[in-house]
Amino acid sequence: MQRTRRDILLFMGGGAAGAMLTPAPWRLVTDAAIWSENWPGIPRPARGEITARYTNCALCPAGCAVRARCVAGQPVSLAGVAGNPLSQGAPCAFGLTGHQLPYHPQRLKQGTPEEAAAAVRGAMAKCGPGESVAVLDLAPGRASSWTYRRAMAAVANGVYLAPPRPLGGAAVNLAKARTVLSLGAPVLDGWGTPGNVHAARANFRLIQAEPWESRTAALADEWLPIRPGSEAALALALKDPKTAPSAAQATGLTEKQILDLANELTASGPALVLSADDLPEALALNQALGAWGQTLVARPEVPVPDAWKKAAPERVVASVPDSSIRVLFIDESVPGSHIPWSAVEKKLVRDNPVVVAFAWSLEGYGRHAQFTLPTAVYPELTSDIPPAIDSPAATFRISAPLVAPPARMTDPSAFIAKAAGMDAGNALQERADAIHKSGRGTLFTYADGKSTPLKDIKPDAFWKSLNEGACWVDDAAVGRASWPAFLSSPHDTQAEPQSTAFPLLVAFAEPRTASLTSPLMSKLYQDSDLRMAPNTAALHPDTARASGIAGAARAVLETQYGRCAIGVIPDESVPPGMLEVAAGPEVLDICGAFTRAKVVAA
Amino acid sequence: MIAPNSKSQPSRERQRAVSRYGMSIDLDRCTGCGACMVACAVENNVPPAHEGATARKGITWIRVFKVDNGEEGAARRSVFVPVLCQQCGEDTPCVHVCPQQAVEVDPATGIVGQMPERCLGCRYCMAACPYHARFFNWWDPQWPAGMEKTLNPDVAPRMRGVVEKCNFCHGRWHAAKERAAAAGKSEIEAGAYVPACVESCPTGAIRFGDLKDAASEPAVAAKDAHSFRLLEKLGTEPKIYYHSKRDWVRQVAAAPKPPNGKENARG
Amino acid sequence: MPFLAGALAALGAGWVGFPHAIYKSRPQPVDFSHKVHAEKAGTKCEDCHAFREDGTFAGIPSLSTCAACHTAPMGTTAAEKNFIDAYVTPNREPDWASYAQQPENVFFSHITHVKLGQLKCEQCHGDQGASDKLRPYQVDRISGYSRDIWGRTLFQSKAAGAVPGMKMDDCVDCHRKQGLSHSCLDCHK
To answer: Taking the model in full, what pTM does it have?
Structure first.
């Protein structure tokens, strides 16, 4: 039989008709639709048993209590612990994304600890007279901090350096305050323990004296818009009303406003005066208002083992002679205060100092150190968190790991202790034992929300609870001590005078952090304009124009400490003569307290 | 098909109590900290901003805006306003316009549920929504290596080309219903389920509850004289009640144009 | 004639060839017999496919459930020996394929259906408990869905351990019959 083209076409037609009666074409259509919706590369969340684990957040001194929702042991979200006596269940945006930090793309994964140790040994052996080995601890008060102090005491020329303690180490008792005058302190935007501040908010009248309408100013009971740099003059006038006329001129307020405020502070006490960076005038005003023993108290020390008392004293960087440090260890493993690098650098010897930084990224001091050894990052690390500034009681809480750190991480305490020929031991547990021996205080456990007096708990149970999410609070009454000497002596921070070289006053618009934050924080500054991205600054359009910058642009920020690149955003709500900056590590390297700066186009 | 079980519950017990979930937001407490924004992204598997993302193209199911009274200098006053899907109860614009029926008002909870798996990405709903509460996935989600371990199994990640929006964390509603079922109950108790933004707000500015329960905070706020809703005159009957004792805040909310004259004409 | 030939060829290809081609088949990692465990060990469904305290369903048991009994051989079969050698001793989780695997965007609560709906396991999963062998897992190459969600079709016999369908239509049908809510938000994530 001859096959004609017609036959072939009939065959194909029959095939098509037959195919319509089979599942094939219909199934292929549905499958294609489903396939187009399930793009490879879209991750499927892991399944598993959902459990709750508890810890404390190590990202700032507030140390808020954290409940982690874990899927098969992996934290997938964090929340606060309601009813916690210290933090009242209110973590901030940084804390809510803390569980993502271990996967930060800029996380440091390897270092050269053997090389670093060899370099340290070599340099320590070479130390001449007048030269020292130093540890710069950016988060003092921890058990690790005591290990460093003991290590530096064990080394002949060891020095322990830490940033100056805010308020000289005193604590704020916010619950007692009825009137709070804040000279630019971000009381409602990251100061102290946010949960504690908001819980106490209804008890006090907040007066925010600040040149710009910050978040705190927007929600304060009263906003006093003073001229940039006039905080000290205002504080002086409130203490000594005779200077009110000159203060009025400096601040732009009327004399009546200043005198009324002075009256309010004395009449509606107990009062508290806070400033953005420990202004000596603000501290003196506190003393005059009788804050000591009321809203400013001496916090009892968190107990330490007696054997630890032989430890190097805490010193500030400025107290060390220039060019005297041969070996410097910088502990950046836990976020803390930041000291401008140039202030640190001038203390290093000129010839081949060895600088070893312990950090989880290269973005901080890692940019300047010879060796940066990677450490565990919250929530992988184990550390205690010193009491927050607004905790009048001594507290002890441990940030216990929720996930295992990767291999080859360095433990700064072990490294430094070894370099000093000392055994680090288990400092955290020794400290917990010392606290338990004191028998004072109560333990609040997060899993069951119970408060138990310490004397009713056995030592093992105490240690176990601390590692499963708990906080110890020494609620013993704080006595009224005399005004401590350190609060009235000449202070490390002095406001820089205005100069033509550096005409702009720097203010921090966002909570200060030198540490990298979760990539998800870009929701706040890239996907929206709620916050400013790190290393960006806002300027009044006139100021920007005067600095030669048109519109949003890249620029260079320069201070007496150095220069760095920033992004500039014009914003009419910023007073002329001010620079509001969202600090990242580069900016914090060149901005200290009350810094003056200038901005030039890039 | 599965035959009805002879031991199943009689039909009148199967009629569930209907809830109308709503929120009250106290603008006198919101500090603009942004905790709600990141908590929402963590809960709902929203990825970090893509390289090309901007304030217009980013995905922020809840977004806090800073609004001011239009004055300069010392007379300037600002307020922070969290805006999320208003869960319109009446004539829901997005439901009306969707050609795919990818969004519907859930009869049991009143939640306007967006189903990204049905969406074809025409973005008609984004044009229809008067509150700019809907977001398009311009890009596939990208998490840094390893961060996909922190994804929430109760919410499905979306691919590019679909619209997504706040669903009042209905993954948490599912979990609450499952816990109730484990205890033998078919209804969840008040307070058993709160969205992530409510749980994370440090000042307690955002409160959540059933508007049908007269004792719940949103129901109480709804009756307060200082409460208002956004764009009430459109008749969408949103279920989010904003509250402020400050007169100027309520005036700005009700004003036809922004005080400083700068309208967001590009939407 | 050619038309008929074409039609027949297409029908044959569509009904026989196509299913063969579209489905990728793989055997389960372990030759597990439900029947043996039900009869000899007296286990019921819930003993291994357990509910946790909070109501979530643990699904296919993990190695620890099996290893609780099978650290040493309990019988004489080669299948059990293979299992112990390949999985229990090296502490390796078998990669079971779940016949009822649903897409990522589906929320299904077992406890609601079992406790409140009072459904028996067999009503949706068929008489798995009586099966002596696990049938191979067949997955659609394009969509990635298991063949078993289609359930009992015209050409599948009961004896082959066929199960009722688990597609969205099947769930909605049953909810409708029971007078239960079936809005999108009930089942979708």
So the answer is: 0.92
